[in-house]
Amino acid sequence: MRKSCIGEKTKFKKIDNSIFKPHYDKMHAKLQTMHAKRILKKRSSTVEPVLGTMINFLNLKRTNARGIKQAMKHVLMSALVYNLKEIC
Fold this sequence. Notes:
The model has no long low-confidence stretch (mean pLDDT 87). The protein is an all-alpha fold. The chain has one domain. It is elongated. It contains four helices and no strands.
């Protein structure tokens, strides 16, 4: 029985259970519905490519701005550039 659960070199098996497991299970069940699958599919085709482009090509991985206001300016400028590229 032991060999079927863990390998020969492994000395123990660790099982982690979080105090938030009921929440994880509830969210997992919610994401299995058709409504959630439609929303995720729509998001993956509309929102995710925009964020990926902004992070990888418009320098949003890291900002050297000081303060929230300056960082927000950086994000807004990146969004502006993205929108201008889409228009042209």
